[in-house]
């Protein structure tokens, strides 16, 4: 059964943080953090329309300029999500350039920042010189700081965040597929039905929760002809589809190991298939890690163990350990396996 998300770190573990997640069969991707990103081709950057920023320290945000440059002449809308201050940070970046020749450029940036009691949003349009247009805040009376909260809800998946303490809010994220849909291609062929784009529509109807008696028309490309055919959703699902648990990824960077942060991370990453976690320090330098509001490899492993994740990937190694990357991985993996 092929997973829906294909994920990998943008850079090697000593490089700037960043996680690229491709949504298979959709020509769409998500990008977590905007560190230096020359390793991503322009094509891959253009697929990433949703950008999730942990915080705006330079190594997590310097890649914004390249994303902007690649997307500038395109008719795209880029959506950025992140902690308080993100709107001002984006505005500051944009004010650093002169925009007198972009009148007809169609690029739009939509920025949302999440505060403990409200969500603020702003839109920046290239054709208007990227002057910010801020919307009235959306009040969230239940609060957003104590439990993972949704920042993007799609029919297929949800991205949730939690605010962690890095002496500023540093957002950690979890990407959760609603449920996984696997189409049995052998049964399709036996029924004389082709594999094709109509299956994407089928999946969308299922993710949207359409009822069993929902009827939809699909365009089928058979051997030498094109045919329109009506289907009943429940019949197609029962004959050709298997629905299983959805895939989950978690991404945690720049956080101190303490009781409050530990509880939040474990709640966010619980049962993740892959847990991407920072590990800048070896545990022999735990005092330094705490002083700098970062994790050690052993602490990352303990968090992964307590969250019950299936796989741990550590990264964001401090350059002080150049040449010792294997030692960091071993320390993290030992704590993950041993508790």
Outline the structure in words.
- With 339 residues, the protein is α/β, with parallel strands linked by helices.
- It folds into two domains: 5-178 and 246-338, Metallo-beta-lactamase, Chain A (4-Layer Sandwich), CATH 3.60.15.10; 180-244.
- Helix content is 28%, strand content 31%.
- It has eleven helices and 19 strands.
- It has helices spanning 42-47, 58-61, 64-71, 86-95, 185-190, 198-207, 233-240, 259-269, 286-291, 297-307, 325-338; strands at residues 5-9, 19-23, 28-32, 48-52, 77-82, 108-114, 118-125, 132-134, 138-139, 149-153, 157-165, 169-177, 180-183, 215-221, 226-232, 241-244, 248-252, 274-278, 311-315.
- The strands form four sheets. Strands 1, 2, 3, 4, 5, 6, 7, 8 and 9 form a nine-stranded mixed beta sheet that branches. The chain has a six-stranded mixed beta sheet with strand order 10-11-12-17-18-19, with helices on one face. A two-stranded antiparallel sheet has the order 13-16.
- A hairpin with a 3-residue loop joins strand 11 and strand 12 (169-177).
- The longest helix is centred in the C-terminal third of the chain and has 14 residues, at 325-338.
- The radius of gyration is 22 Å and the shape is globular.
- The two termini are 30 Å apart.
- The mean pLDDT is 94.
């Amino acid at each position: 059964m092929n997973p829906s998300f294909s994920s990998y770190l943008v850079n090697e573990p000593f490089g700037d943080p960043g996680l690229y997640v491709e949504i298979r069969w959709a020509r769409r991707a998500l990008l977590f953090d905007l560190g230096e990103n020359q390793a991503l081709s322009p094509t891959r950057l253009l697929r990433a329309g949703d950008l999730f920023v942990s915080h705006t320290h330079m190594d997590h945000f310097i890649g914004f300029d390249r994303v902007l440059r690649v997307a500038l002449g395109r008719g795209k809308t880029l959506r950025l999500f992140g902690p308080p201050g993100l709107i001002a940070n984006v505005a500051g970046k944009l004010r650093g350039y002169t925009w007198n020749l972009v009148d007809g450029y169609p690029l739009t940036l939509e920025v949302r920042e999440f505060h403990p009691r409200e969500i603020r949003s702003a839109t920046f349009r290239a054709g208007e010189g990227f002057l910010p247009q801020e919307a009235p805040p959306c009040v969230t009376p239940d609060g957003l700081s104590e439990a993972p909260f949704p920042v993007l809800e799609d029919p297929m998946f949800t991205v949730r965040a939690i605010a962690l303490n890095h002496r500023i809010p540093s957002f950690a994220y979890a990407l959760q597929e609603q449920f996984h849909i696997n189409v049995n291609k052998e049964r399709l062929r036996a029924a004389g039905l082709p594999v094709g784009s109509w299956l994407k529509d089928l999946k969308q109807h299922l993710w949207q929760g359409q009822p069993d008696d929902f009827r939809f028309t699909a365009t089928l490309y058979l051997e030498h002809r094109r045919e329109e055919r009506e289907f009943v959703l429940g019949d197609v699902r029962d004959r050709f589809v298997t629905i299983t648990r959805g895939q989950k990824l978690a991404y945690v960077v720049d956080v101190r190991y303490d009781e409050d942060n530990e509880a939040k991370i474990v709640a966010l990453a619980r049962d993740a298939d892959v847990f991407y976690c920072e590990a800048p320090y070896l545990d022999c330098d735990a005092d330094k890690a705490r002083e700098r509001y970062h994790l050690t490899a052993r602490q990352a492993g303990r968090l992964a163990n307590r969250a019950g994740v299936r796989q741990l990937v550590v990264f964001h190694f401090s350059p002080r350990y150049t040449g010792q990357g294997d030692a960091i991985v071993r320390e993290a993996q030992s704590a993950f396996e041993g508790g």
